[in-house]
Amino acid sequence: MVNVDTVYKTVLYLLNKQQRGYITPDEFNKTSTQVQLEMFEKYFEDLNQQLRVPQNESEYGDRLKTVDEKISIFKTSGTPSASAANVFTPPTDLHRLGSVIYDNTTEVERVSQKEFLYVNNSPLTKPSTSFPIYTYTQNAADPFTDVTVYPSSITSDISFSYIRKPIDPRWGYYTGTVGQYVYDSSPYLTATGALVVGTDTLTAQLTTDASGAAVDGSYTGTPTNPATLGFATDGSGTGASITVIISGGVVTQINVNSGGSGYAVEDTITLDRAVTGIGGLTDPVVTLVASNFYPNSTYGSTNFDLDNTDQTELILNILAYSGVVIRDPQIVQTATQMVMQEEANQKS
Amino acid sequence: MADIGLLTETASQYYAGEQTQVYDAIAVNNVITWTGDTLLIATVSSTSITNYAIYINNVLQIENTDYSLTATNEVTVTAALVNNDVIKLRILVPALWNNYGSYEYTPLTEVINNFMMTYTGTGKLIPSVKRTDVIFHAKRGMQELSFDTLKSIKSQELTIPDSLSLIIPQDYVNYVRMSWVDELGVKHIIYPTTLTSNPYTVPIQDALGVPTQDSLGDNLEGTSLTNERWATANDYKISGAYTNQMYNAGVYNWTWEKVVYGARYGLNPSTSQINGWFTIDEREGKFSFSSNLKGLLIILEYVSDGLSIDLDMKIPKMAEEAIYMHIMYSLLAGRLGVPEHIVQRYKKDRRAAIRNAKIRLSNIKLDQFVQIMRNKSKWIKH
Predict the structure, then answer these.
(1) Would you call A68 exposed, middle or buried from its count of C-beta atoms within 10 A (0-12, 13-18, 19+)?
(2) Residue A239: pLDDT over 90
(3) Residue A183 domain-assigned?
(4) Nearest to A1 by CA among A160, A170, A161, A194
């Protein structure tokens, strides 16, 4: 993986060298996603190209092995869901289907619908549990491209090896004291209803304070419904860890230590004074708003999914796009030339 | 220790067809996983095709009451068990017999997998191939080799009924030899004959000799008179055998002064035998025998194509290379852009491998060879 902060800062450094311009985190994130997808797709073309060239058996000079290593990050396996007796829906993060495997031992061979008719009608090639086959076609019953396995007696024990989609990179940030963008290194959580992790992230959403003589201290718990050790929510969220800091008898800071899942906008998080020992006259209440969740916040970062060895090319490609963004042809030209030079070096 | 040996069964699994497990009440190990080569088969839909049995302390248990096959080669014992009970899984006959000598063969599935793995792929002569193509050529190779290289002759012991005909076996491709067996168990070859034939259609003719039709316009079919006559033929009239009738007629009477005694002019040696004949009735799918064979015990030896049942789909290791070369050649010969010298190389390789397999499977042993030559009154020094 390539660190997103390293890339962003390097790009900014190169762009700002002669006060050429600046790209915002949002522009960077969009450009990064585009570049990552471009480079990811190119892996497969590179692989095909290298497969046609005789390779060597050296430890680190085998280009085929090098490309395969880059792709290996995305290789995964999964068990599909069966949408009919012998029809299986691939996992949602599938990008390219690799092998379909029956009973963990037998490869299921892919055939076209036309081939299937002939294969199935010939006694010699008819599919069997020893040599099963599948077709990969759009299923009218669901919006997915499904795998239909033959012989149709195979209704379970199917697994897939596949290439997953790359995860979009994201340079997460929050606004610093002088308005600057500060990098948020905490990971961007993809679970639905996960709270934004960070210091002070819930303080502004305090709707009821523990008025009166609250006991100063740090109180940590997990809001659930029903309450767990005095931390309650009226929604269905679970798993988040929250720390409430009381100083001078009032709540001064509410931090989220881990995001959990299942929380929603307008859910309340309440601390039971009696159970938590906060004291005071009222239970502190936090009412969640949209910005407490990752899709609506700038918090949370995701590193590039690409292989470490591609950091240079990644930076150059983003730089080329950044040149387009800031309308500087010289940057575009230089970055593009350098990318081409590197490409030529890798493949000649 | 290296672990690349091909034998995977223990001696107990191979010879006795058994695997035992001591029950541990704490671990509750009531599932016995058979690790031998034979695939366990359970009773399906009340039809007993089970090829194994479970014994607890040497007492036979009842399938689906005391034990059942719960996964591939995994048997769950549901009978009450106490600590240190000995659970024994035993493979039953004929599955046990099928396993004996199985090391002599390589299953066709293994041949296909080996081929896909070794002969195809990046940097090889065949960079990519559909497995379906390999399966097709492997099975075709199996058929071709079965006919004259593998010597995998099947045989049936049958008794010829009064109808003088026997149905062709289900997996029959061609016959090798037909013999009747005398009271000593010695085989006597029955020859096919061209003296008669079995007509494929027997249309009923009208007075003018024109075939007649039914209301649907199809020819009316009758029974074959040729077959009837052959079935009732007196064999001696064809073989020329000496009969009581001849004796009674005084054909070789002494009073003829032994002029023709022992002399059988015009005798046809190919038909002058008492073993009888058979023909193949393609229309009815039967072997038809001459009348002198009625009630006799016969042995029918025939070849199949090696593909009729799963158990047949194996290739002798002596011919494994031949099937690889057959697949290789067949794939290359039908492929676009393969240089002709490559195709020819594999054509030669295939031929050589098949020849090699034939020689190996002919089982010509020096000692047997010498013994047979002794029969011929030859002096052999060795």
Answers:
(1) middle
(2) yes
(3) no
(4) A170
Cβ burial, residue B371 (10 Å; 0-12/13-18/19+): exposed
Cα A61 from chain centre: 31
Q: Does B140 touch chain A (CB under 8 A)?
A: yes
Three-class DSSP labels, A197-210: CECCCCHHHEEECC
What pLDDT shows up at residue B344? 97
Tokens for B60, please give them: 């036979």
A134 shares a domain with A47: no
Domain-located, residue A178: no
Counting Cα atoms < 13 Å in the Cβ hemisphere of A99 gives: 12
- Structural domain includes residue A184: no
Residue pair A20/A331 in contact by the 8 Å Cβ criterion: yes
pLDDT tens digits, one per residue of A214-230: 788 888 999 999 988 88
Q: Which two tokens stand for residue B58?
A: 């040497």
Hey, of B72, B110, B132, B140, which one would you mutate to test binding to chain A, going by the most A CBs within 10 A of its CB? B132
Instruction: Please tell me the distance in Å from A156's CA to the nearest CA on chain B.
Output: 13
Name the strand (E) or helix (H) holding B181.
strand B174-181
Alpha carbon distance B57, A266 (integer Å): 68
Question: Taking CB atoms and an 8 Å cutoff, what residues of chain B touch A122?
Answer: 136
Number of domain units in chain A: 3
> What are the distances in angstroms from CA B306 to CA A333, B156, B324?
68, 16, 16
Please give the residue range of the domain that contains residue A260.
Answer: 189-296
A251 and A284 Cβ atoms separated by less than 8 Å? yes
Give the span between the Cα atoms of B287 and B285, in whole angstroms: 7
Residue A142 has pLDDT above 90, yes or no: no
Residue A331 belongs to a domain: yes
Does A123 lie in the same domain as A25?
no
Q: How buried is residue A331: exposed, middle or buried, by Cβ count under 10 Å (0-12/13-18/19+)? A: buried
How far is the C-alpha of B58 from the C-alpha of A239, rounded, in Å? 55
Helix axes A311-325, A4-16, angle to 10 degrees: 50
Q: What does R_g of chain A's alpha carbons equal in angstroms?
A: 27
Does one domain contain both A49 and A34?
yes
Edge-to-edge strand ranges of the sheet holding A285-287: A206-208, A285-287, A268-271, A231-233
Partners of B132 on chain A (C-beta within 8 Å) are 109, 111, 115, 119, 125, 131, 133
Within this chain, do residues A249 and A220 fall inside the same structural domain, yes or no?
yes
The reply to whether A57 and A84 lie within a common domain is no
Residues A280 and A308 in one domain: no
Of chain B, the percentage scoring pLDDT greater than 90 comes to 52
Cα four-point dihedral sign B353, B354, B359, B360: positive
**Residue finishing a domain among A114, A148, A164:** A164
Residue A115 and residue A20 share a domain: no
A109 shares contact with chain B (CB less than 8 Å): yes
Same domain, A59 and A128: no
Mean pLDDT, rounded, for B149-173: 89
